[in-house]
Amino acid sequence: MKHIFxxxxxxxxxxxxQLVLKKYKPGIVAITGSVGKTSTKDAIGTALAGIFxxxxxDVRMSEKSFNSDIxxxxxxxxxxxxxxxxxxxxxxxxxxxxxxxxxFQYPRWLVLEIGADRPGDIxxxxxxxxxxxxxxxxxxxxxxxxxxxxxxxxxxSEKGQLVAALRPEGVLVVNADDDRIVxxxxxxxxxxxxxxxxxxxxxxVSNEEIIYAPxxxxxxxxxxxxRFRLEYGGGASLPVxxxxxxxxxxxxxVIAAFATALAVTEDIKRKEHSDIRFNPLKVxxxxxxxxxxxxxxxxxPGMRGTTIIDDSYNASPIAVAAGLHVLEAxxxxxxxxxxxxxxxxxxxxxxxEHRKVGEHVAAIAAKAVPLPTDAQQKIPxxxxxxxxxxxxxxxxxxESALNAGMDExxxxxxxxxxxxxxxLAEELQPGDIIFVKGSQSMRMERxxxxxxxxxxxxxxxxxxxxxxxxxxx
Length: 473
What we know:
The chain is of the alpha/beta class. The protein folds into two domains: 2-287, UDP-N-acetylmuramoyl-L-alanine:D-glutamate ligase (3-Layer(aba) Sandwich), CATH 3.40.1190.10; 298-471, Mur ligase, C-terminal domain (Protein-Tyrosine Phosphatase, Chain A, Alpha-Beta Complex). Helix content is 39%, strand content 20%. It contains 16 helices and 15 strands. It has helices spanning 2-24, 37-49, 69-77, 86-101, 121-125, 152-164, 179-185, 248-272, 280-287, 317-329, 350-367, 395-403, 417-425, 445-451, 458-461, 467-471, and strands at residues 27-32, 59-61, 109-113, 133-136, 171-175, 191-196, 203-214, 221-232, 236-243, 298-302, 306-311, 336-341, 385-390, 411-414, 433-437. Strands 2-3-1-4-5-6-7-8-9 form a nine-stranded mixed β-sheet, with helices on both faces. It has a six-stranded mixed β-sheet with strand order 10-11-15-12-13-14, with helices on both faces. A hairpin with a 3-residue loop joins strand 8 (221-232) and strand 9 (236-243). Helix 1 (2-24) runs parallel beside helix 4 and helix 13 (417-425) runs parallel beside helix 14. It is globular, with a radius of gyration of 23 Å. 49% of the residues are buried.
């Protein structure tokens, strides 16, 4: 019965979305890849809002991670997910129909995230979405959702359907640091704008560093964000700073947004015969306000003078590795604690990839300097790096960390995120840095909720805080 209900809802919502696109004819930026789609979508929406006089009213982004066929349609219509509430869907149907029949104020540009959980997902969307600009993020060696594809090449081919759907006069915005993305971009002719850290990228980053500031009521500094220089246009550059996040995971979305804003400006000139000029300073100022979606390398103040790097939205091997690199690079007055939940949907890659995670944490621990001893703690204070493994699959990471030389007292194992969070809540000490990550179903945001300084702010700072998610075990 649920499948029939979902089928009917999807058909109606997609049909209404098609009518709305035909009526209002907005420009469309479509984002795909296997890593960083949502953060890139958020950054692009922020950058584009700075271009138009109407600001955010002229730009609409996909809500949260609405990247499926029905999610994209809801984004086009500007409507919420009705979940399993028939009345809410009935209201959606009526509001979507009214938007299609009558004339309302509608955004000039849509910024849509397009995902692929299974073969055919992007193909269904591109039957009715023809983007003006396609922005490609990354496709790592072991992408998330690869479990449902016969090979990585099959997943790349699925992503390629969005590239093929680009309008003939459209622009492709390409991550120059990813060989698969570059190869995918080369399958079509037409204008391309590249971004990345590579020397040949048209929009390039240099001089990236972590920003530190004193923690309130303490005598030590903690990370508060990042800064870097953004180079473009054959020699021009400008400084960019982003707050409350860490990692190249958030540098890439910012430079992708800058490149996409450049592409949108050129598209407006072509379509509207406008004399609009690309204003890099205005775009950079807008990006300074970029606030990534909760659960993506967000810095959250923790209890007792600790700092949480909350990356609990989801997990893939490349994203876990990137987060661990950040944890290693941070100058921390206390311990570095990696709280890692199972990485799901990896298929045959699962066991090997979890073992690699344990080896990575052990390598960080081997380089770390021991801290002073405190015999009163269950977790010895001289242990400077801890691995907290959550879930059945992450046991392989714990085992490989021990085999690689980590002390038994530095490797903890729990079945659930809630158990791990409650244990750590009794053990944290001032200056500790806690990196929290795991796949969506592991609900690792519960660890952050247990450890954050102001739990009353969970609704605004953490992922999966709506009533439907809160009811799930």
